[in-house]
Design brief:
By secondary structure, this protein is an alpha+beta fold. The chain has one domain. 31% of the residues lie in helices and 13% in strands. It has a 4-stranded antiparallel sheet with strand order 1-2-8-3, sandwiched between helices. A two-stranded antiparallel ribbon has the order 4-5. A two-stranded antiparallel ribbon has the order 6-7. Helix 1 packs antiparallel against helix 5 and helix 4 runs antiparallel to helix 5. It is globular.
Length: 315
């Protein structure tokens, strides 16, 4: 398999026609593991991401309608995202018969997690670089998946790379009209935490992304009893490690204060982006995602409480 898998280099996938879901999963994993971009070349050469997790959701799942209540009435359904991106323009696209979502989790590399564990007042250079270089790689992967599906004759879109994507400033913080974490929850890839992150089988230290398509794909089962089933704090109150890790005091037993979190990002902007080797529009943080029991796995816990499958709002 070629190591340089740049956007636009679409190769044929022999098993796509017989098993498109498995073929897409394999391609997503191969893209990340084989990409020369997946490396912190200017830090220590370590991998930005480890092997991805991939899930699928039915785009007409009622959960996406629930998100209009949980996140906001502005949150797009997959069908809306696909139709809004049509070349014919909003309101002119033909309604697709099927709508599916391809969602993936990119677990952050071990060396970056180890570096961030040592930090107490702000992000390590590893974490900062992963935030920006990793997102560039993540976006390139989304474009690659879109091009692959279009090459096969299907409509496809990465919703957060379209003109329809927006981030709103609400009284309780910022919220987007396409929440990748909520999409990943719908695709069976994890549940929410006290810190508003998503605890996946590979933990909470991750990035995620998704593509919507009119290709019919089998939905991944959501093998959890509630939207917080992977978080020990909500199961039996046995954790709360992320509370102590937050330098802003933005995480408490009541949850995650996105306004306080955002204000700390502004402080980090002044303190860290002047340091050699730090990148991007802001320094990022990630302290609540490292040196916690859910960093790279689902913690051992009791049976989760019941509750609405529509998770807490967040971006």
């Amino acid at each position: 398999m070629p190591a340089d898998k740049t956007v636009g280099a679409i190769r044929e996938l022999p098993s796509f026609d017989s098993d498109p879901a498995r073929s897409l999963e394999g391609e997503i994993k191969s893209y990340i593991l084989g990409s020369p971009q997946n490396c912190l070349k200017d830090v220590d050469g370590s991998a930005i991401f480890e092997e991805p997790l991939v899930g699928f959701a039915n785009g007409d799942d009622s959960l996406f309608q629930d998100y209009k209540r949980v996140v906001g009435d502005f949150h797009l359904t997959p069908r809306e995202a696909l139709c809004l991106s049509s070349p014919e323009g909003p309101g002119h696209a033909s309604e697709p018969r099927h709508v599916s979502v391809v969602s993936w989790i990119l677990p952050i590399g071990k060396e970056t997690r180890l570096a961030n564990r040592k930090m107490t007042e702000g992000p390590s250079r590893h974490w900062n670089n992963v935030r920006w270089l990793g997102q560039e790689l993540n976006d390139n992967l989304a474009r690659h998946v879109v091009q692959l599906l279009e090459h096969k004759g299907y409509r496809a879109v990465a919703p957060d790379q379209t003109p329809a994507f927006e981030v709103r400033h609400l009284s309780n913080g910022r919220a987007s009209n396409w929440s990748q974490r909520h999409v990943a929850y719908a695709a069976g890839l994890g549940t929410f935490s006290l810190s508003d992150g998503l605890i996946t089988a590979r933990g909470i230290a991750m990035r995620c992304n998704s593509v919507v398509t009119d290709l019919e794909l089998p939905a991944t089962p959501r093998r959890y009893s509630s939207h917080v089933a992977n978080c020990p704090f909500f199961v039996d109150g046995s954790c709360g490690a992320c509370i102590k890790r937050c330098p802003a005091g933005a995480i408490t037993h009541k949850g995650h204060d996105k306004v306080k979190c955002s204000e700390m990002m502004q402080v980090f902007h002044k303190l860290y982006l002047t340091k050699p080797g730090y990148l991007g529009r802001y320094a990022a943080c990630g302290l609540c995602q490292t040196k916690v029991p859910c960093e790279s796995r689902i913690p051992k816990l009791a049976s989760a409480p019941g509750g609405s499958p529509a998770a807490r709002a967040g971006v």
